């Protein structure tokens, strides 16, 4: 019962991770213009994402421009696009597989099949978490390095936006969920090794006595 409750808790974490992963991939505020220098009060906020660049005005209006050309983008944005989409796909697969493998569901067949499905879903969550953690870390590193670069003017410096933090938190949720699912399956397999099923051994006394009886007949 405790293992089923733990799996359900991991499934809830994975759901938050999937929704956060999708939101981080689509949000345009991966980096926001930094309010530094003499012009701190600005009426325009510029945001840059993986798929579009947006400008927010103090009047409440938005203006977004899609990034159509892939080859013209920096390499870290291209890598972030690919890995974030891969993370969303892997996490979606993990949700489908763990739904079958969880103990609180009636899908997946016997306990061994459900355990294997649960382990496969946990691996998908771990891979999705890693795929989401790599681009957010790389993107943050590029923002910080450009911010500390003295040759870049202050008007062109940026700070990490809300999408980056959402990606970090979502990757953490997916990693924790994947570890919990895999650990629950390992615990069950370890118990099977420690307490193997009892095998019934038939005594061989009757065979020995019959063999001795047959030898006496020949004497």
TrEMBL record:
It comes from Furnarius figulus. It is found in: Cell junction, Tight junction; Cell membrane. The lineage of its organism: Eukaryota, Metazoa, Chordata, Craniata, Vertebrata. This is Claudin. Keywords: Cell junction, Cell membrane, Membrane, Signal, Tight junction, Transmembrane, Transmembrane helix. Its main location: other. Residues 1-24 form the signal peptide. Belongs to the claudin family. One of its GO terms (molecular function) is structural molecule activity. The chain crosses the membrane at residues 75-97, 117-139, 163-186. InterPro entries: Claudin, Claudin_CS, PMP22/EMP/MP20/Claudin. Claudins function as major constituents of the tight junction complexes that regulate the permeability of epithelia. It comes from the Eukaryota. GO terms for cellular component: bicellular tight junction; plasma membrane. It is a multi-pass membrane protein. PANTHER family: CLAUDIN.
